[in-house]
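User: Structure with manganese (II) ion, tokens only please.
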Amino acid sequence: MTTAQTQAPATATPALTMTAAFEGIEGAYSHVVLEAYAGRRGVTFEPLGCPTFRAVAHAVLGGRADVGLLPIDNAIAGTIREGYDILAEYELDPLAEITLRLEHRLVGLPGATLEGVREIESHAIVLAECGRFLASLPDVKRVPVGDTAIAARNVAAAKDPSHAAICSKEAAERYGLVELAGSIADHPDNTTRFLLFRAPVAAGVAAEFEPAASGADRKTSLVFSVADKPGALARSLDAFGKHGLNVSKLDSKSRLGTSEFAFYADIDGDVREERFADALQDLKEYTSSLHIIGSYDAGTAPARVRRAIDVVVDNAPAVVPSVSKQKQNFPKVTREPGQPRSKVRVGNVVLEDGTFIIAAGPCSVESREQLFAVAHEIRDHGAVMMRGGAFKPRTSPYAFQGMGWEGLALLAEAGRETGMPIVSEVMSIDQVERMGQSVDMYQIGARNMQNFDLLKAVGKTQIPVLLKRGMSASLDELLSAAEYILSEGNPDVVLCERGIRTFETATRNTLDLSAVAVLREKTHLPIMVDPSHGVGVRRWIRPLCRAAKAVGANGILIEVHPNPAVAKSDAEQALTFQDYEDIVADLARIPFIQD
Ligand code: PEP
Ligand code: MN
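Assistant:
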């Protein structure tokens, strides 16, 4: 990470080492670009090669690299959309455009000859860029690999003079290879444009990065889409022309699932200029979506490029650490890279990484006999916590509404008798205090996930909360809801994926198990899965319990009934005792996921 080198003379700008993430291995064109750029700007980049574009973004967002580099277009191959898309998706902050002329050369082992070459490895796009040269070698096999430097490394490792690679001079030198043919691209002006970027900065910090007001030597990249109507594109482009802004690049792609096109545009100027604000105002009338990737120093701006990197340098000793957008929105629930996951203790049970717990019980408490039968069954077969609804949120006001306080008292008694902590749904603020005297964990139901006053009320208690995902809530909304509870002082929140509404009607909901993978990355809070409400059909609960454990959940919440046929709520998804035991046996065979 960033370190100022102390041996620099006091009067000079201290030399600085920054970690720079790029796609490929050392010697790849992206690495060559970083080296050239660093040499000109008086910084040193510690290279961090990454296997994919997305991994480059993750390295920067996760704080493992100070800056990242992604290619965004090539003179022969055209727009590299993945580069733009990732910058847009992660709201990365572009700093500078860097253009490199790629001089492809064919290289091989010392002593190899062009005539003796039988196989050539390189990046697929680079092979395409050298189409004419390769056409002159019809009997030679072409082997696409992930990156030009990997091709060079493979050739060096193969120790076979009939193997050659197309790569940069730097990659050839690095792997001890010699040139067999130089400048072999179809066109000599084979340039690639890259963007150097860093993680998004908190709003208050952004002002420190303000460029000079003129906007000259600045460029802005954006992605927008226009309705599929005559004149819509012309009018949107006119929005720039009218305000004196030059569109220096425009490329389109269809937006899947719509009849619209997305346009990738580069505009000369800075988005903070007034004329830009006016143009964007006009543009909004014709666009159905608009995403501004950001403004950065154009390659034509040596002075500004210098300044952009200086800004990074100035801020580098991490006086103000860059803060991801997520961290700004939900600071307390966000998991920082490397941060350990939280433990939540519920009575004698601890939800933590490396354990997987079973919480089971009836959907509703219906009678003493029903509840105690279930309590003994589950306690004797693997469950460590008991669930049971006393206040039930039912779609119909005429459906069974739960036994209320009487049901809760039974639940507490069954919990004491079997030694299991109990979890039950709290539906309103006025139940919070009284319910807190008997439950070990409050459940906030899916329908109440965004009942903010209720979230604040349980947040003021010291009792753990099982927060279920709303049936149409995004994961960010779930995290925001959790943030409400933590922000009031209660750190003991467990998230619960319980299925979301989709177009699928075969299952009651769609159990979004990808949520577990995403949440494990985004938050330190434990995560449970409720396959009962997720699929709503008894026979599909078992495979999804297995999947929940395999994907890395910290536990499951499932509904069990002594006689599902007469269950007063959620009868179709109630497990018989036999179903329940089969699930417990299955789960014993699935390993825990820990990372
Ligand atoms: C329940 O657990 O019984 C329940 C009502 O769940 P959800 O809020 O997920 O629908
Ligand atoms: Mn239920």
